[in-house]
Amino acid sequence: MKSTDIGIDDVAFAYEDFAYRTPIKFGGVVVDRATIVNVRVWVSTRGGKRAEGFGSMPLGNVWSFPSKKLTYDETLAAMKALTERVAALLTAHREFGHPIDLTHALEPQYLQAAAEVAGQIQLAEPIPPLCTLVAASPFDAALHDAFGKVHGVNCYHTYGPDFMSHDLGHYLGPDFAGETLDRYVQRWPRPRMPLYHLIGALDPLEDKDIVQRIGDGLPETLPEWIRADGLTHLKIKLNGEDLVWDVDRVVHVDRVAESVQRERGVERWYYSLDFNEKCPSVAYLLEFLERVRAKRPAGFERIQYIEQPTARDLKANRQNVMHAAAKIRPVVIDESLLDLESLLIARDMGYTGAALKACKGQSQSLLMAAAAQKFGMFLCVQDLTCPGASLIQSAGLAAHIPGVAAIEANARQYCPAANAPWVSRFPGLFRITDGTVETGSLTGPGLGAV
After folding, report:
1. Mean per-residue pLDDT for 137-157?
2. Could you count the other beta carbons within 10 Å of the beta carbon of residue 58?
3. How far is CA 80 from the centre of its chain?
4. Considering the domain 6-153 in this protein, what is its CATH number?
5. At 247, which helix (H) or strand (E)?
6. Domain boundaries of the chain, sorted by first residue
7. Cα-flanking dihedrals φ and ψ of residue 56, to 5°?
8. Percentages (nearest 5) of helix, strand, coil residues in the chain
9. Residue 271, C-beta contacts closer than 8 angstroms, at least 6 positions apart
């Protein structure tokens, strides 16, 4: 026990709904709206100091709860019911501790609550563990925010033995005994980081691809985005079930980007490829890479990494090993990354990288960042079209975790209305002009957002 530990006094949450400026397609599903959960927690130290913390996150039900049996509204309703249970469990928790300890103790209860909620509302299938992590993530973020604020420091200054009672062995097993989390987390953020711009499967690349312009003053084609934001990092959403389309999409993106970058005098830029687990096998991925290399050798060299190409249930798909593909480019576990066990399984299957996401929780992201660094894995921080405070949290993760190459910030493309209240407060984070995001300002108390 430490005098810095906090206990939970009260919890409150509310929803915000936003329509997307333009729809995004991933994993074969079109998404045109977002429901965001805003959470406030009030905490006290053992000595009676009090503070309020804030966390925010899109529910992301299409990504975290994909279903062929349930509708969008049904999975969203299930996540809302689970959110209520998470809030109740957090309110009832009477132990003191560091935010990571509090979440570590509560996570099994959250998973049990998900099973109970599914039964109570008679869902046709269980609520996935990934969905549970997303529902709990804004509450976890609010705890970290409150912890930093009650002690008057940025939360990234609280991950060492001065504030944490346990070493990493307590959370990650004997291989980490004696190690402390601050060894794997930077106290100060990098001042600027490149931005990965998303190219969705429905996004127009050129003027000829536009059926009708939105006309809201924001860019609408890839050249317009590159020129306006000075982009050098492009994330390409792919189908995974249509090899010809996937190859042609990358070829088309590379041709368009090459023309614009030549015009700008830019010689180096990068791609990440995201199949959203839709590839039927690693053979599909290998054939895809070979065809891209044959058609666009320079474009192939611009590929920085590949996000989870095949099914998220690793145990049920152990045949889809990534050893051959990972010799070509880092292959990153994303949807499958739930805990240390899943990270170890992924390593055994040949994955060489891990995607950290604020929507899986600040606590889990930090622990997985430590494990992945110890194992020598490639690291990236990915988005859930996070606006406002959730983007600030995500950017903070990327800027404080050693080895992370860039930041994703998709809400500026698809849901700018949710960013609007934050732009004047953090202009360098929400207005992009040189292809980078200003992260050096994320040094305020807590998560640095409020």
Report:
1. 98
2. 28
3. 20
4. 3.30.390.10
5. helix 243-264
6. 6-153, 192-438
7. -150, 145
8. 45, 20, 35
9. 233, 234, 235, 236, 250, 253, 254, 299, 302, 303, 304
Alpha helix (H) residue ranges in 151-202: 169-172
**Token duo for residue 413:** 């493309």
Q: Which residue has the tokens 């988005």?
A: 383
Cβ-Cβ contacts under 8 Å for 390 (sequence gap 6 or more): 36, 56, 57, 58, 138, 141, 358, 359, 384
**Rounded CA Rg of the chain:** 21
Instruction: State the pTM of this model.
Output: 0.97
List beta partners, residue 42.
10, 52
Residue-wise pLDDT tens digits, 100-115 = 999 999 999 999 999 9
Q: How many residues does the chain have?
A: 450
Concatenate the DSSP letters of all residues of 278-339 into one string: --S-HHHHHHHHHHHHHH-HHHHHTEEEEE--S-S-TGGGTT---HHHHTTS-EEE-TT-SS
CA distances to 114, 122, 123, 139 from 70, in Å: 16, 11, 8, 26
Partners of residue 8 on adjacent β-strands: 43
Taking only the tens place, the pLDDT of each residue in 263-285 is 999 999 999 999 999 999 999 99
Yes or no: domain 192-438 corresponds to CATH 3.20.20.120: yes
442 in Cβ contact with 392 (< 8 Å):
yes
User: For 92-106, b where at least 16 C-beta lie within 10 A, e where not — what string?
Assistant: ebeebbbbbbbbbeb
At residue 292, what are phi and psi to the nearest 5 degrees? Answer: -65, -45
How far is the C-alpha of 249 from the C-alpha of 243, rounded, in Å?
10
Alpha helices (H) along 314-426: 323-326, 340-348, 362-374, 388-400, 411-414, 416-423
Residue with tokens 């001042």, as numbered in its chain: 191
